[in-house]
């Protein structure tokens, strides 16, 4: 038996309870893991509170990220005692996730924990950090160089955005950070490496088909009219990596920036990202993230505190990462 946070549905309401679970109740998988740490993402918050249609079947153990130690394995790639990390693959939505002392998972979903990271640090990076690295890599792969000009990051104070700012600065890019709370978040974003802070309202105005060329590239986590405005301002031969739709999934723009300025729009997904690319991204994260990143605001909580934190994160009341010690 082991302790888990279990979500169940009753009269169309999501109920989150902590209870003892038998190992035999775990879903099928190749690898049994003793979970050391999980984390609380916004998606987890929506699942636990029932504010979003995240969970595809009940009962469900939430937790889209986890780091732990292999306890049993029927796959030759992993052995007892190996340290592993998991992000994505629908875990915590359609397959029991990380907010439990044990998890049974498909070996294909796992990545060996990089040797210079521990489990807590891995969860301070988590899905947000992995997605940010993939976005930054998309800019690099598009041959956009630091000397070409500033890179714009929207939603810069969020999980993906803040890591993207950090990574770009470490690679020598000048970064313009867009945030809805410039006055309060500006100093932190400057500390992470941003050279310019821009209030989000500037990008919520209707976009012209083509605007002044301001940015060599961009990483967008917002979508909709913000992305349309960004695209109109990308310089010739620039690139935009997109990974979010916080502002909506529509895109009110034209083909003109793509045709007349030869720009690239690259979608980025971390959920189904293949193993080799995922492993390379984790390795680059360990090489690029400075020690100061792991000294940022991070709240370590127990399983008993998760429900309260889930309510807070969905209300925009959480600063920094929430790491769950199992």
Automatic annotation (TrEMBL):
Q: Which domain of life is it from?
A: Bacteria
Q: Name one GO molecular function term.
A: acryloyl-CoA reductase (NADPH) activity
| Name the UniProt record assigns to this protein | Oxidoreductase
The leader peptide range reads none
SUPFAM superfamilies assigned: GroES-like, NAD(P)-binding Rossmann-fold domains
Q: Where is the Enoyl reductase (ER) domain?
A: 13-324
InterPro entries the UniProt entry points to: Acrylyl-CoA_reductase_AcuI (IPR014188), ADH-like_C (IPR013149), ADH-like_N (IPR013154), ER (IPR020843), GroES-like_sf (IPR011032), NAD(P)-bd_dom_sf (IPR036291), Zn-ADH-like_protein (IPR051397)
């Amino acid at each position: 038996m082991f302790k888990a946070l279990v979500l169940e549905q009753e009269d169309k309401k999501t109920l989150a309870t902590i209870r003892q679970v038998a190992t035999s109740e775990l879903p099928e998988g190749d690898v049994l893991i003793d979970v050391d740490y999980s984390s609380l993402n916004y998606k987890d918050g929506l699942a636990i509170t029932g504010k979003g249609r995240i969970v595809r079947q009940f009962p469900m153990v939430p937790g889209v990220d986890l780091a732990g130690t292999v306890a049993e394995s029927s796959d030759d790639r992993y052995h007892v005692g190996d340290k592993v990390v998991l992000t994505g693959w629908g875990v915590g939505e359609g397959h029991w996730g990380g907010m439990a002392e044990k998890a049974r998972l498909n070996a294909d979903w796992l990545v060996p924990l990089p040797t210079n990271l521990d489990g807590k640090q891995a969860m301070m990076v988590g899905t947000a950090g992995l997605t940010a690295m993939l976005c930054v890599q998309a800019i690099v792969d598009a041959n956009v160089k630091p000397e070409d000009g500033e890179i714009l990051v929207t939603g810069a104070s969020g999980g993906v955005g803040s890591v993207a700012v950090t990574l770009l600065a470490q690679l020598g890019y000048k970064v313009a950070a867009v945030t809805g709370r410039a006055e309060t978040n500006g100093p932190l974003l400057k500390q992470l490496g941003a050279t310019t802070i821009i209030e989000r309202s500037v990008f919520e105005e209707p976009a012209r088909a083509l605007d002044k060329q301001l940015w060599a590239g961009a990483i967008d986590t917002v979508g909709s009219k913000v992305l349309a405005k960004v695209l109109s301002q990308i310089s010739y031969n620039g690139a935009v990596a997109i990974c979010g739709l916080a502002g909506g999934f529509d895109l009110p723009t034209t083909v003109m920036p793509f045709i007349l300025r030869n720009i690239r729009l690259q979608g980025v997904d971390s959920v189904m990202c293949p193993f080799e690319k995922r492993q390379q991204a984790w390795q680059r994260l360990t090489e690029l993230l400075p020690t100061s990143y792991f000294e940022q605001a991070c709240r370590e909580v127990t399983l008993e505190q998760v429900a309260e934190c889930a309510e807070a994160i969905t209300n925009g009341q959480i600063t920094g990462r929430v790491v769950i010690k199992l």
